Amino acid sequence: MRIVLIGVVAALIVAAGVYLIIRPGRQETVAVHPPITPTATGTADAGITIPEGFLRGEELSRRPLDQPEVRWVRTDEPGLPSLLSPCGTQPGDEAGRAAGRQMALVAPTLYKIERMVIYRDESAAARAMDGYRDALTRCARHPEPDGATTVWIWEPLDIGDEALFLAGQRYEGDRGTHGHHRGVLTRKGRTVLMYVDFGQATTIADRSEVALYEQAARDMADKIASAPWS
Predict the structure, then answer these.
(1) DSSP letter, residue 79
(2) Has residue 17 got a pLDDT over 90?
(3) Which CATH superfamily, name and number, covers 66-225?
């Protein structure tokens, strides 16, 4: 995977959860997504221990990377910030989180993230999924403060107890502009699993682009079914 680095920037503008880097002397903007790690630390509920090596990204992170600007970031934390905010705010109620782990492949203009959140019970996990679906539907066309519009699409998937494919794309008028979201969310019992990436595509993703995420989610749903907390 080759990633083009951004040069000196003139301004950093916050717009509905997406930061825009404006290059001097050019009209082009490059979307850089907001932080994926928490600003405050927390601890998992007593009795919940996620085994080492449980996520697929843990094994991948041991392999050497050939680009110095690309790195893996691991976070063991229930209070991870929302990866998806179609309406510009936290979707649903996240108060029921009990434990979490995230593996993120981070580059200057691209994130690829595997995240697992364990909730205190199955009802809390189901409410979290309801919140995502509701936000994706309610804010299918979400106007941004800078004049752009983010378009969201989703469809249900047959993985685990419930799952969905999602994609988001920024538009200026009818023209796609830098800033995409795409991924797969699934719930198995009280565990919600996410495979998502954020980057610079200018056309909205279709489901075929997340086939590897679907397979990963399917495999992990089977693994979660026999996890100690399930």
Answers:
(1) T
(2) no
(3) PknH-like extracellular domain (3.40.1000.70)
